[in-house]
Predict the 3D structure of the following.
Amino acid sequence: MPDASPNRCPVCQASLTAVFRSSSDQSLTSLCEIHEGRIDVSVCKRCGHIRSNALADLDQFYDTEYKILTGSVDEDQIYDKSGDRIVYRSDHQLAVLQERQTIDAGLKVLDYGCAKADMSRKLAANTEADIHLFDVSAQYLPFWQQLTEESRWAIYETPAEWAERFDLVMSFFAFEHIADPLSAIEHVASLMRVGGRLHIVVPDTFGNIADFVVADHVNHFTRSSLTLLLEKAGFADIEIDDQVHRGALVATATKTVSESAESELNQDLVDTTVSRTLELAKYWSGLDERIAQISASEGAHAIYGSGFYGAYIFTRLKYRDQVRCFLDQNPFQQGKQLFRKPVVAPSDLPADVSTLYIGLNPAIARRTMSASPLSNRSGLSFQFLDEG
Ligand SMILES: [Zn+2]
């Protein structure tokens, strides 16, 4: 096992530099649950990797507590909305996967860190690939059983006969959770045949800045650190795209015979990454202060967005009792509760609400709200997270 010290970069082992400590001792997980503990973020000045302090017991957390979207098979997160058409995240991911990878009948595919195997289910419906599943929790078994048979899944460890077996390993939003990503990517490489293809998607903290303060995202990969990670595990032809999936890095690579083929680190890229990291740290440090300033004591309030940003605003508000509801366009969210407040469709905003906090990714918040019918409602004041 490589050194898993919190002060060492999990990609290159260099010493880390602390850049951020959250002001509240409550933080939020990616599932919008409150976690007791501060967020500490560090950056590696050698490879540009960004590291957060891990939850105290990460293994226990994923085995029992972490249940991503296990409500129903069809539950999914919105990726985008154009007009009345909602594009779900897994559909977008499938489109990108099929555009980048040739998936012929019988291709041996492993879905690494697959959770309830949404992507595998979509792939199975669209191709004749031979799909296998891996995760570090047994709680998704009911979903796996609907998809395939026991010889095609593994939990915690992979069987010896899976060595060098796979033509394609795909991994969607798993590596940001893994405390020792280098061991995990070496594990992935050991399961692939030479010439096999890797397709991995992780959050891009610069494209979706909430990622920076999510309690269970212990890694924030950057273009330079993800490249180095893949090179260390013997991958070549590495391509990283930060445009095709908003808020994410999509990396593709080919497994080679060499154990490791590290190229020179691009120092300019690393330096730019470090300064962007410092800007993000400054943004989050200033945000709590800004929410406190705009947190009005008068009138009825609502929060637009029941995802991470909306939940984050709620936990920072001084006057939580005045929040009537959360608004969300996602029909799977409507009817639920968040912090004991109802989640309703935007058109169901109660008439007496005078202040609407916009809990959306700042990159799309203003565009989304200017297209919303709520923008014409008189007497309603919008409070955005950015300074505007
Ligand atoms: Zn590093």
